[in-house]
Specification:
Layout: H1 2-40, H2 44-60, H3 63-67, H4 90-112, H5 119-148, E1 151-154, H6 161-170, E2 175-178, H7 185-201, E3 205-209, H8 212-217, E4 222-225, H9 232-239, E5 244-249, H10 252-260, E6 265-268, H11 284-294, E7 299-302, H12 310-315, E8 321-323, H13 325-328, H14 333-361
Parallel strand pairs: 1-2, 1-8, 2-3, 3-4, 4-5, 5-6, 6-7, 7-8
């Protein structure tokens, strides 16, 4: 009887140690996320949700649980993993800490059932709140980068693919789409995963053309769909709220459909005839002018755009452009990116000056 009692005491003490360790882990992870919400995003709602979650965790972190702590006797304090030694981007840092919090909450949810009658259900609900926060926060982070992006590289197969993409990223590119229609899936997935990692090192978005499965498996920021691909609305259901879905459009009707289905951005073109879209008639600058007036999400003029005609496209109202050959075949991709961005920024400056003039003389 005494032995059974002692075993029960030992189990209870172990449960308390587990709960204490995971409450600490969850609170620390949330604080790391909260600091970015507060100082990086200046977001009061996200910051407040993190704070509310931390306070709820603290309310469960009783003196009994803290007293069970045995840091010197914990073998886990010496354990580490190479992936924990560095973070390639803010997104990776946030994802790592969200995972840390979610894992800790799951542990508390299960072991809490042995400690308190309502602890399991309380932490189950808290875990769902963290899932929602992650989806909203990472989605917001991606949307901010998308909104600020002016130049979009759509890749084509090349022996120098990684070198070209990295050179373009070094020039200030913040949006890359991996497009390869013919490579087998295993190689395509490996290439996508490597490109995704490369883009995230430069705080750039990585999008996969057509393939939702490869986008998910490679941890891409989203997918780009053509008119013959899966509907945007279905893709958004499959990908969840935090990833981006873009859509190619060639006329006002397709634009309206993409907007109604919830596309996060649209491609507008082809502005000029291009071998990338062989046999497809150019939509022309008139469609660019239409998009400038009616598009309600970020849009990128695309199709045959080069350093020789980009100012014509900008003159028609484009504030963002997407290119393929102009960068994939460039001898100096970094310089070409900088040229495109300079022209687009000049357009933004002129527009801002015009706005100021109209406000002052209206």
């Amino acid at each position: 009887m005494v032995r059974l009692y002692n075993q029960g005491v030992q189990v209870q003490a172990t449960v308390c140690r587990i709960l204490d360790a995971n409450l600490d882990r969850a609170r620390e992870g949330l604080r790391i996320v909260e600091e970015w919400c507060r100082f990086g995003l200046n977001s009061a709602p996200f910051t407040d949700e993190c704070k509310q979650l931390r306070q709820e965790l603290a309310s469960w972190h009783s003196l009994e649980l803290r007293s069970a702590r045995d840091t010197p006797g914990d073998p886990g304090t010496e354990l580490t993993h190479p992936q924990e030694e560095q973070r390639a981007s803010i997104e990776q840092l946030l994802q790592a800490n969200f995972s840390r919090v979610q894992e800790a909450l799951r542990v508390i949810e299960e072991y809490g059932k042995l400690y308190h009658p309502t602890m399991g259900s309380a932490f189950k609900q808290m875990r769902y709140r963290v899932y929602t926060l992650e989806s909203q926060l990472l989605g917001n982070q991606r949307q901010q980068i998308l909104a600020a992006a002016q130049l979009y590289l759509v890749t084509s197969p090349s022996n120098q693919l990684f070198n070209v993409v990295e050179a373009a990223l070094q020039g200030g590119l913040t949006l890359v789409q991996y497009r390869d229609k013919n490579t087998d899936d295993r190689l395509r997935l490996a290439t996508a995963a490597k490109l995704c990692q490369l883009c995230h090192q430069y705080e750039a978005l990585f999008i996969v053309n057509d393939r939702i499965d490869i986008a998910i498996a490679s941890n891409a920021d989203g997918v780009h769909l053509g008119q013959q691909d899966m509907p945007v609305s279905v893709a958004k259901e499959l990908l969840g709220g935090q990833r981006i879905v873009g859509s190619s459009t060639t006329n006002p009707e397709e634009m309206q459909q993409a907007l109604e289905q919830g596309a996060d951005y649209i491609g507008v073109g082809p502005v000029y005839e291009t071998p990338t879209k062989a046999g497809k008639a150019a939509a022309g600058l008139d469609y660019v002018r239409y998009a400038a007036q009616y598009a309600t999400v970020p849009w990128f003029a695309i199709g045959g755009i080069s350093v020789n005609n980009v100012n014509d496209v900008i003159g028609a109202g484009a504030e963002r452009v997407a290119v393929v050959r102009s960068l994939m075949q460039a001898q100096h991709p970094t310089l070409i990116v900088q040229y495109f961005l300079a022209q687009l920024n000049r357009r933004q400056s002129v527009k801002a000056l015009q706005g100021d003039y109209n406000n002052n003389h209206g």
